[in-house]
Design a protein that fits this description.
The structure is a homodimer. Chain A is mostly helical. Helix content of chain A is about 75%, strand content about 0%. The two termini of chain A are about 15 Å apart. Chains A, B: It comes from Streptomyces montanus.
C-alpha cells in the first residue's frame, strides 16, 4: 500500500522525480569505489547512512515503547517483531559505515538531536496514536529515502532500498486504525489532528537537518557543488507532503 | 561466567541436583511424542513454555527501555541487540507452543501478572541499576530453567537450553558495573542494596507462580502426581539464592 502511493509512482509527481534522477546519471551509474573518490559525495553518504542508522535505532526504541501500550499480547508481540526488524536494519547500516571506514557513532551523532526532538515532541498518548505515528513516520522516511536513492551510487542505493523494505508495520497499522474508526468515527477526527501534528514536526526537524548538513543537503538537491537550491528542497518536501495527504485520506483521515 | 556458578556445577549442590534428576530418568529419557501422552506433563510443559515466552517478551521490553538510559550510542546499540536476541527467543518459544497445539497467548496469560509485577516493583532509576537488574534477572531465570531442564523430555529440553543461550548480556553488564565501582566505590553499596531488593522481589513473585500453577509446580518438585513437596521447592529456591550470592560477591557486591 505504501509503495503504491510513494511520490515516484504517483502520476502527478512522476515527471519531477524522473527529471531529478536524470540529472544524476553520473553518480547513480557508478558503484561506491568509483563514486567515493569525490570527498563531498563520500561525506554526504556517511551523513545519509548515519541519519538512517540512528533513525532505525530510534524506531526500534519507539516501537518497543509502543509495545507497552498494546491492548493484547498478540499486538505486543507484533510490535516487538517490528522493533527487532528495525534493529537488524540498524545493524546493516552500522556495518556498512564501518566497512567504508566511518566511525558509526560519529556518523550518527549529528542526527541524534533532531530525531530525539521529533520523538520527544510527538510522544503518543495511546495505542492508536502510536500506530498512526509509526505508520506516518515510516512512510515519510520511506518517501524521503526513495527520493534520495535515485541519486546514490549502486552499492549505497541497494543497501538503502533493502533497509526500507516494509517491516509489515504499514498494513498492520492501517488495519488496526481503520477498525478503530469503524467502531467509533469520532476517533478519526482526533487521529487526523494527530497526523497533522506529526507531519508538521517531521518537516520542522528535517529542515533543521538540511540547514545544518551541507554535504547531505547538496546531494539531496542534485549535487550542485557550490551550495544548494532551497527551492528544490522545498519541492521535495511538497512531494512528500502530498504523498502523506493521499495516505491519510486512504486511511479515512482528512489530512 | 554465569555458567560456572550455576547450582548444578557448584560442588555443594551437585548431589541434590543429581539426585533429583535421577528420579526422573523416565521422562528425561523420552522425547515429546512419548512424554506428552501424560496430560499432566503436557500441561506442565505448556505452562513452562508460556512462562518462558512471556519472560522473553518482558525482557525484550525491559532491555529496550534500559537502552534509553544508555550513556552512549554504542551502549544503546548493545542493549538494543540484546533486546532483539530476547525477541528471537520469544519467537522460538511461541512457535513451539503453536507446534504442540497450544494457543501461545493463552499459555502466556497466567504469567503476565507476576512478571509485570516484578518489573513494576523494580523499575531501575538509572543505567547501572538497569544493568544489575538485567544481569541478576537473567542469571536467576537461567538457574531456574537449568534446574527444570533436567526434568524435561529431550525435545523440550533442547529448546529450553537453546533459548537460555547467553545473549552476551552477562559479560557486558559485569564489565560496566565493575568499572563503575572501580571509579567510585560508594556505587557498590547502593547497587548491593538494589540487588538484594531484586532477589527478594523475584522470590516473592516466583512463589506466587508456584502456588498458582499446580501442574508446573508438581513437575518442578519431581512429578509427584498427588501434590507437591513444599520443602523441595524451598530447597530449589535456596540453591538459586546461593548461586546469586556468589555472583554478587564476584561482581564486588555484598549480597
Amino acid at each position: 500500500m505504501r509503495c503504491m502511493t510513494t511520490p515516484d509512482n504517483a502520476p502527478g509527481t512522476a515527471d519531477t522525480a524522473a527529471d531529478t534522477s536524470a540529472e544524476h546519471t553520473g553518480v547513480s551509474a557508478q558503484d561506491w569505489a568509483q563514486a567515493s573518490v569525490d570527498p563531498q559525495y563520500r561525506a554526504a553518504v556517511v551523513d545519509l547512512l548515519g541519519a538512517l542508522a540512528y533513525g532505525e535505532l530510534a524506531a526500534f526504541e519507539r516501537l518497543a515503547e509502543d509495545a507497552k501500550l498494546a491492548p493484547t499480547l498478540a499486538d505486543k508481540a507484533e510490535l516487538a517483531k517490528m522493533a527487532s526488524a528495525e534493529f537488524h536494519h540498524f545493524e546493516q547500516l552500522r556495518d556498512r559505515l564501518a566497512a567504508i571506514g566511518a566511525e558509526p557513532t560519529e556518523a550518527m551523532e549529528p542526527f541524534v538531536a533532531a530525531l530525539d526532538g521529533f520523538h520527544r515532541q510527538t510522544a503518543p498518548s495511546d495505542w492508536l496514536e502510536g500506530l498512526v505515528k509509526a505508520y506516518v513516520g515510516d512512510s515519510i522516511a520511506s518517501d524521503f529515502y526513495r527520493e534520495v536513492a535515485a541519486r546514490l551510487d549502486s552499492d549505497t542505493r541497494a543497501l538503502v532500498l533493502a533497509v526500507l523494505d516494509d517491516t509489515g508495520h504499514a498494513s498492520f497499522a492501517v488495519e488496526k486504525v481503520r477498525a478503530a474508526i469503524d467502531a467509533d468515527p469520532r476517533v478519526g477526527g482526533r487521529l487526523a489532528l494527530w497526523a497533522r501534528r506529526l507531519m508538521g514536526e517531521a518537516l520542522s526537524q528535517s529542515q533543521r537537518v538540511v540547514a545544518d548538513r551541507d554535504a547531505l543537503s547538496t546531494m539531496l538537491v542534485g549535487g550542485v557543488a557550490d551550495g544548494f537550491d532551497l527551492a528544490e528542497v522545498g519541492r521535495m518536501f511538497s512531494r512528500i507532503t502530498e504523498a502523506h495527504t493521499k495516505r491519510m485520506a486512504a486511511l479515512g483521515l482528512a489530512a
